[in-house]
Amino acid sequence: MRSGNPLGIEKSVLTKWHKGLTMELNSNGDTLLFTGLLYQMVPFITRVTRFLEKLESTIFERFLGVYGRASRYTSFGALLSMNIKPDKNPYFNKVKNIAVILSSLRIDFIYREELDNYSGILLFDMGDDEKFREHATHVSQLLEKAKINRVITIDPHTTYALKILYPEYTDFDIEVVNYLEIILENLKGEKEANSEKHVDGVTIHDPCFYARYLEIIDQPREILKKIGYDHIEVKNSRRMTSCCGGPIESISPVFSHEIAKNRIAELKSSNYQTVTMCPVCIGNFERCGYSIRDISDLILKGIV
Amino acid sequence: MKNVYQTIHTQQISEGIRKTLENLSSKVQENIRRYPFLIRYARELRAAKIEINNNFQYWIDASISTLEKAGIPVFLAKDAKMARKIIGEIIETGKIVVKTKSMVSEEIHLREYLQKLGNEVWETDLGELIIQVAGQRPMHMVVPALHLSEKDVIEILKKIGIHGNNAEDCTLKVREFLREKFIKANFGISGCNAFSAESGSIFLIENEGNIRLSTSLPETYISIIGIDKILPEDDFALKSIMVQSAFFGTFPPSYINIIRQRHPKKMYVVFLDNGRKKSDEKLKEQLLCVRCGRCQLECPVFQITGSVWGGDTYGGPMGMGWSAITSSISEEVYLSCICGKCKEVCPMDIDIPNIILYLRKKYLLC
Known about the structure:
The complex is a heterodimer of chains A (304) and B (366). Helix content of chain A is 49%, strand content 8%. Chain A is α/β, with parallel strands linked by helices and 304 residues long. In chain A, the strands form 2 sheets. In chain A, strands 5-4-6-7 form a 4-stranded parallel sheet. In chain A, strands 1-2-3 form a 3-stranded parallel sheet. Chain A is globular and about 50 Å long. In chain B, α3 (37-54) packs across α12 and α16 packs across α18 (352-365). In chain B, strands 1-10-7-4-2-3 form a 6-stranded parallel sheet, with helices on both faces. Chain B folds into 2 domains: 2-32 and 280-365, Orthogonal Bundle (Fumarate Reductase Iron-sulfur Protein, Chain B, domain 2), CATH 1.10.1060; 37-272, NagB/RpiA/CoA transferase-like (Rossmann fold, 3-Layer(aba) Sandwich), CATH 3.40.50. Chain B is 51% helix and 13% strand. Chain A binds chain B through residues 57, 62, 65-67, 69, 124-129, 208-209, 212-213, 239-243, 245-248, 251-252, 254-255, 258-259, 262-263, and chain B through 2, 5, 8, 14, 300-301, 303-304, 331, 334-341, 343-345, 357-364.
């Protein structure tokens, strides 16, 4: 991972998400918005996964070991993603939304491109402890040198990596808060942000890592309630949520697709629009033909 | 992973699992709601099994001593080959053997071995018999033929001269077919759901009644017991079978068998180690498993692949750990989503995703 991310994409292509943002981002302070670059990578991941799905189970594939399968991401990633220009990345908007929401709630934070890095979670998931430790040490040292005291994370995988794994694998000693926690905390102090009741309810797809690994389950529900949405629990929700299939898209796009199909069937049965809060889930569902909204879209409309 | 890929095109597997899950999931919830003591039992059982894991040799010796005092011949097989040899020498050749569904016998490929020695061997659990006749592997530990339709089963059973018109008719005819085997059988073989070192009792649960017949009618009975099934006392063994059946979804089970002695009929016990005792700390956690199979049905990957994914014998998320203990680490550990649902539903609170991640680390180092 010389590029610092599993797709081998030049980092600046992912950190320019704030271009065109009307608000100004601070760069002096000790609370950092740490995007972990995962949202920004989704269009690239989708493109590579679609390509690899076509190759899967061909003779070509059978010669690859499992690790080879994952590292194809780097080989094909950079190649296939060359023509996704930063200003054409639709996932930049989701990160922008989050920045605007935080700012609207008067939550102080800074953003510095050089400090925002991929967490290395795929290395951990692959069982490559040493490379994960090396990567995590590099990322955490950058933060410590910059005297960052607190990071705000915006997706479940990066949150899990920084909050749970980094202290275990490195000397990382920085407070990690997830944006949903901090948004709820700040909404609690205010009146119902925009109490106009929305006619349609929403269904929540709980990302596995939020629900079962980090216990971030009630926060999105309470936020949605605050901004006037009723939520309807779908079959297999909260701690019993079903996986979207995304975690194995680098190993087997075909299986990942089949798993997504099963979850999509459960979500569709609610007849309400589905919201979630994980770029991996959103990306995988979209690849499999199911459009799902990111919670930040609703929060932005609800409070700004 | 070639075989795993074929499962995508076998829709009957996912349909069978979905139906089984729909049928059992609410029953598990209901069991927990109605009998809250089950959660306490599971916790107590976990603590007892940890103690056994940490002192395997002591508990193996205690179990052997109890059985020997009761006059029952006992063997300790260090691996599958030795277990097959011991049982082969007892049964020899030209015998009729009735078997109950047993994962530990799948683990040592016993049926095939006894057939090679020239014995007539019959599975007596309906689903397992269908799997035997079809020449397949069980698709789930408890519901081995969940992937086969009524039409498939009608066709498969024709191979042994059973011509049924529907599921009910087939079941009746299989009963008649097996009745003759039970009566003529020289040997009955079972696994063991829980073993009490205190009394030397073998605890077995079932819903069909075939275990009762297989373990009582034949002149000689052999029980194969994975050393992970040893528990200190009858109390824990009872709790274990309750937890196992409740978390699978069938509680209480139709029959509970407790077998001690069979005078004047003969009985043998074969304890099987096969990698269990030497498991390292991480893998020992897998040995706390009571094999209710709930993690399998709830796993998003298993819901597509059935037991084809997850190793040689056990399949699914728990199969990864069991295969590593009893056979080898499979490349298929990489197909797990690590989504954590297996841990969420495990009554024994086994951190299965952590075991799978550990196996990935070991696989990379190989």
